[in-house]
Amino acid sequence: MIPSSTYRIQFRHDMTFDRAVGLVPYLKQLGISHLYASPVFTATTGSTHGYDITNPNEIDPAIGGRAGFDRLAQTLKAEGMGLILDIVPNHMATSLENFAWRDVIEKGKSSQYADYFDIDWSRPITLPFLGDTFENALRAGEITLARSPLTGKPAMVYYENYYPLTPPSWEGREQQILAMTDEESITALHNAQPWRLMSWRDAPRALSWRRFFEITGLVGVRVEDPRVFDDTHKLILELVHSGAVDGLRIDHVDGLADPEGYLNRLRQLTGPDCYITVEKILGKGEQLPESWPISGTTGYEFIASLAEVLVDDEKLNALRLAHAQATGHAGDADAALRDAKGLMVDRNFEGEFTTLVTLGLQIAEDNGEKADRETFLHALRELLIAFPVYRTYGTASGLPSQDVLLLQKLVARLYDLENPPDARSLDLILRIMSGAVADASQASASRFRTRFQQLTGPLMAKSVEDTLFFRRNMDLALNEVGADPAPRAFSLSRFHQEMRIRLSRQPDALLGTSTHDTKRGEDARARLYTLTEAPELWVASLERWRQMNQTQVRFLNDGTAPNAADTWMLYQALAGVWPATLTPDDAEGLAELEERFVGFTEKALREAKLRTDWIDSNEDYEAVVLDYARYLLSPENTLFLQDFHTALQPFIRAGLMNSLTQTVIKLTAPGVPDIYQGSEGLNFSLVDPDNRREPDFTKLVHDLAGENVACFEDEACWRDGRLKQYVTVTLLRLRRDKPDLFRYGDWIPLKVEGDRAENVIAYARERDNEALVVIVPRLMFESVSREVNIADDDHWRNTVVTLPETLSHRPYRDAFSNEIMTSGESLDLTTAAGNIRVLLTE
C-alpha cells in the first residue's frame, strides 16, 4: 500500500517502542498514515542512531526488544496505520559485539562468516583501532593478554577491547599464552593471527576491507551473495510477511555491489505490495533507473527543487559578491569541488584508490598491454575527480548503454584540462569498465567495475556534503544534501518542470524537507534563503556584529582566528538556528543554544578540513573559534545580542513565511510527504547529532489537542509553530481523504500577472473532475519586515492568477477557512484573505 504520508521517528536515546506507542494517537490525529522508523535492529551498546548494526535478526532490547516492537506494530494496525522500517543492507558494525565479525577475526578465512564481509583475503584482516602503532602501544603497556569476559577464551586486550586469538595459536598452551608479558612473544603471537592491530591513522591507506564511506566502525556487507542476503534478511522478511511491516527504506543503496540486483531480489521476496524507497542522492536532472522495482527515493532532490522557488535569483549575485569581498576570495565553485575531491582521493580514500590502480594495471598486463603506473594513476584520479554523479550501475555483464555514454562524454571533457590525462590510459579504463577485455580478465574487470562504483559514491558524498558544504558558506541554505555543489541560477519554470517529471517518474517517492542527515532543519533553511532577498542588509549587519566582537579575535601563527570565512559562517549559522521566540534576556535559552551551537562549530571547522581536521586537529585555532562562538551567546554580550535579535527579526518573519510556503508545496506536490519528527512544528536544528534530538512531543500533542484553528493573523502562532502544525494537519488530512487526486492528479502551472506576480507561485493538481488550486507567496522579505502576515488587501492589488478553462467558473472551498467561493477565469488575490490559499473544488 502506498502511504498518504509518513512520520519519521528516531529511536535510541530515550525513544523506545512503548514511548512510540503513546504517540500513535497523536500521529493518527495529525493525519499520518505510516510511522517511519529509524533502524530498530540490535546495534552497538549505546548506539545513538542504530546504523551500526551488530545483529540484523534481532530487535534491539535497548529500545524494547521484539515484545515492544510487536506492541507498536499492533497499536498501529489497530488505528489503521502502517509501519515502514529503515534497513541497512550495506554495512554492519566492526564492534566485537557483532558475533559474525568477531568470528571472522577469530577464525579468519575458515570462519563460516568469512564471505559475509567485503574483505581482501590476500592479506591479514587489518584492525585500525589503536591510538598508535602496534609496537608503540605494546611498548606502552596498552596491549596485554587475558581471558575474554564474553567467551572465556584467550584474547589480546587493548583497553576494553578483547580481540579473540585464533584457536591454533593457543590451543594446548592456554596458560602459557595468558602468562606472556614480554614484547617479543606477544609480537610473535600477534603475527600468528589472521588479523593485525594497527593505528587508526593507517586506515585510509592500509585497510584490507571495505568500509562504509570512511568509517572504520562500519564494515561492508556482501549482500550480493545470496547466502549473505538470506541470512541478513531473515527477520526483515518475516516482519514483512507477517504484516507487521508495510514498507522498507533502503539505506545508502549506492553502496551495494549491484543495487538493481539487490532490489529485484528484495522485491521478489517481499511481494508487490511492500512499499520500498531508497536513500539515493540524484544529481540535478538525474533520474532513477526505470528498471528499479521501487517507489522512488527518500526525497533529497525535492529539497533542491524547493530552492528554485525560495531563492531570489535576481539578487543572488549581490550576495555572492558580498561574500567574496567579506572573505577575500571569489571562490570558483568548480575549482573548490575539484580541490575537495582531490583531497578525498589522495588522503581519505587512498587505500581504495590504490587498490583500483593496482587492479587496473594487472588487467592491462593480463591483456598484453604496457601501462605506466603514474600515467594510469593520473588518468584514474582525474576521472574520479570529474565524475558528475554518485555512480554508474554496471554488473558482471558490463555497463548499461547510458552509463557507457556518460563515461565517454566525461572522458572527452578531460582532454580540455590544463594537464589532460593520457589517452591510452583513459581508453583502458573505459574498456575495463565496459567489459571490453579478454575473457580471462572478465572477472577482474567486474571486480574493478564494482570497486570503482562503490568508490564514486562515498567520494562524492565526502567531498561535497562533508567538505565543500562546510567550506563554501555564501548561503548555508544551499549547502544541503542533494543540492548542486556549484549552483548557477534558480527559476520557477525549472521547479514546475521538476514537479512534472517527479509526477511522471516517481509519483510515490518520499517528499523530505528534514531528515536525520540534513545539514540543518527545514525552518532554518527557509530563513536562510531570505539572505538572497536582502544581501545588503545582511552584509551591513554582519559588519556591525564583527566590530562588536572584534576583541575576541586572535592572531595565531597560521592566521587570524576566526578568519573571515569562518566568521561569515558563524553568524549565518547562528541566524539560522536562533529560535523564533528566543529573546536576549533569556539566559536559560541562550545557554541551551550555546551548547548546541558550539558543538556544531567544532564539527563545521573539522569537516571543512582547512585550518583543522578530524585527522589532525589544530587545537589552538579550534579553541579560539569555539571561545568566540561561546562569547556570541554569552548573556554579558548584551550589545551584540540586542542588536543581533533586532536585526534578525525581518529575516525571521520572512523565514516563517517561507516555512509555510515550503510546507504547503510539500504537502500538495507529487509524492508522499515525510514529516521528520517534530517538523510539523518549527525545526531550527543544525547538522547531526543536533538534528537527531527528540522534539518536544508534549507541546506538539498539547497544541494539536487545542482549538486547532487557523491563526494566520497571530504572529505568536507563527513563531511558536502552532500555525505550521495547523497547516500540516489540515493538508495531511486532505491528502488522506483525496488519495487519488494527490497520487495521480496532473501538475498544472498557473499564470500569475500583476504588480506582485514575482511574489507568487501558483499551480493546480487536477484529476477527472476534481482539482486543487494552490497559491502561495515567495520572496516576501520586504513585505513582512514588520509583520509576518499581510492582512492588507492592497498588498495584492492588481495581482491575478489565470485559470485554464477546466478550472474556471467553478465553486471552490478554502482548505483553511472552509469558505466557499466561485471562480471566474481568474482569481483576484485581493479578494482572498491571507497569503496562503489552497482551494478544493466542491
Your description of this structure?
44% of the residues lie in helices and 15% in strands. The longest helix has 31 residues, at 638-668. The model has no long low-confidence stretch (mean pLDDT 95). A hairpin with a 5-residue loop joins strand 26 and strand 27 (820-822). An eight-stranded parallel beta sheet has the order 16-15-14-5-2-1-20-17. It contains 29 helices and 29 strands. By secondary structure, the chain is of the alpha/beta class. The two termini are 27 Å apart.
Strand arrangement within the widest β-sheet reads: 16-15-14-5-2-1-20-17
Count of DSSP-assigned helices: 29
Count the beta strands. Answer: 29
| Share of residues in strands | 5-15%
Mean pLDDT: 95
Rounded radius of gyration (Å): 28 Å
Question: How many angstroms separate the termini?
Answer: 27 Å
Query: Strand pairing plus helix content: what structural class?
Result: alpha/beta
